[in-house]
């Protein structure tokens, strides 16, 4: 049995889908009604990281687990790793971020992820870290403005990032969960190109068959936007991250997806075409 967490997110959901094609998979969800992964091979277990009895039920009989944590304050990695160790789990595959391995990254979120990796590494379990660059799916936040008035508003439109398709991350995760030889590895994951927000806007325009306009978002407007959604330390961390991207720190392309899966990483134009409906392209 393999346990997957984070199944309402883009990577965890895809990991569960892929695993369910070939064998049993158990998913842990705080809100089971939001789980969209279904089928005869899927078992949904209600629980959350702070709920030790729920964790124990979910981890019973589990051989390997895919771990996704998002809290900036709760010790969820420590909680999960301790419960997994006592349950006899042998291998944790953790979704992390590429900045963890970059000395120039010192924002609040990156420091927390370094602490989370350390907790897993020191748990005594075999581990694999998937250090992913920015998800291509983050551009879904542009969808409402694209649908309503054909505009993309973003900070630093000419700064490149080697963003990665979440499906590629999921495929690497499944390899690590189901095949030997990935223990003790920290995989850096990027897409096959460094692309700017202006270029992403142009790709989306081609896919949708309509003209889109890019508008540079000012720093203060970006800060206000973030503060409406996140606490200040998290908002500040995102802004520090965009400054690193502006300086070129996120443009490096790594071949890990090809090395692990045997096929090249998907470019943004493929991701955009496959998700065009979210931006307003009709099925017809």
Automatic annotation (TrEMBL):
It holds the Pfam family NmrA. Gene3D superfamilies: NAD(P)-binding Rossmann-like Domain, UDP-galactose 4-epimerase, domain 1. It comes from the Bacteria. Residues 2-243 form the NmrA-like domain. This is Butenolide phosphate reductase ScbC. The gene is scbC.
